[in-house]
Amino acid sequence: MTDELDSEHAPMDLRPLLVTLLGIALLVGLAILAPIAFPRLTLPLLVAASAGLGLVFWGAGYLFAIRHAPLKWKLGSLAALVGAGALAGLAADRLYHAGASTDASSFAEAEVSPGGTINMPRGATGRGPVSKRFVAFQEEAAAAQRDYGKALGKLQFASLTNPYALEEDPAVLENCGAIAAFKPKADEYAAKTRERIAAMTQAIAASNFTEALKQGATKMAVVPGFDDGAAARDAELLATGEALCRLLAKRSWRNIGGYFAFSGGDGAEYRKLMDRLVGVAGAARKAQMASYDRIVEGQEQVRDALAR
Questions:
Q1: Are 252 and 139 in contact (CB under 8 A)?
Q2: In sequence order, what E strands does the chain have?
Q3: Is the CB of residue 241 less than 8 Å from the CB of residue 155?
Q4: In angstroms, rounded to a whole number, what is the distance separating the alpha carbons of residues 216 and 227?
């Protein structure tokens, strides 16, 4: 009789409850941490993985404390941890979605100029890792383009189509080889630009964006006017420029009203070279327009994805 009374008044073992609460707390913490530390999973996989993690926590708790509890505590703690895991998965998915939406909002709100330049909204660097990386990508690309354009401008291509300029300063005709020597720099610029674009697209692919957001953002990750044919166009520009320089260096021309007038057969060669330059310029304009169209298309995809 005394043993029965002692058993009824014995203090309750709180270890199963504490272990269960600890497991739930860990699941909540992991749900908050997941969008920061782990790639995004689909909702079913995320819920299943979180529920499975709750089961793992229950198994660990069972070894240390729950196995000593009554059956109803064992079943209750199991249901609590597995259920908390599933709910944590749902919560994590919402956090993924909220974080990705905020991050992608920079792409949706950006202003796109007719030339394909993207002006990101105020505070874009603080909206998420992809937005921050995209701002840096554009700044790096713009700086590289400016430096490349300045270096190309020093070759004085404009003078080769302007007889007045050549009469004022014919120095460019004395160093036509400098145009051909510029090709390694052009190749280096193209290679680094491709690397920069590839790194940006990889960052988007590795982000927590949905597939629709990734597709749209990737289309916006371009350098205006730069495409797969950019290196070939620059090579053609330099080759044609050098040939034009050497032709004009023969001094078989006169300036007549702002036009080159040639003696002998050099006039036909000049017209052929100018046609090549016009072709390169036309292709460059098409590439610029295609960049703009691609960016606008990508932005519309981002906006549509965020509106769902």
A1: no
A2: 111-112, 118-119, 253-256, 259-262
A3: yes
A4: 17
For residues 20 and 61, the answer to whether their CB atoms sit within 8 Å is: yes
Please give the helix or strand (H or E) that residue 238 lies within, else none.
helix 230-248
DSSP state of 254: E
What is the rounded CA–CA span in Å between residue 118 and residue 197? 15
CA 279 from chain centre, in angstroms, equals 31
pLDDT on residue 43: 65
3-state secondary structure at position 292: helix
Six-digit token string for 247: 């032709």
Dist. CA 144–CA 220, nearest whole Å = 18
Give, in degrees to the nearest 5, the angle at Cα 237 between 231 and 240.
Answer: 140
208 to 102, 105, 132, 240, 300: CA distances (angstroms): 11, 13, 14, 47, 19
Residue 133 has what pLDDT? 95
Q: Map residue 259 onto helix, strand or coil.
A: strand
What are the distances in angstroms from CA 257 to CA 105, 168, 173, 254, 261? 55, 15, 21, 10, 10
CB count within 10 Å of CB 109 equals 17
Whose CA is closest to 161, among 55, 71, 240, 239? Answer: 240
In contact, 225 and 212? CB cutoff 8 Å: no
In sequence order, which ranges of 67-128 are alpha helices (DSSP H)? Answer: 71-109
Q: Give the C-alpha separation, 22 to 25, whole Å.
A: 5
End-to-end alpha carbon distance in the chain: 69
The one-letter amino acid at 265: G
The pTM assigned to this predicted structure is 0.73
Strands 118-119, 111-112: pairing is antiparallel
Q: What is the pLDDT of residues 203-214, one digit of tens each?
A: 999 888 889 999
- Cα 89 from chain centre: 28
Instruction: Report pLDDT for 248.
Output: 95
Pair type for strands 111-112 and 259-262: unpaired
Kindly report, residue by residue over 240-261, the tens digit of the pLDDT: 999 999 999 999 999 999 999 9
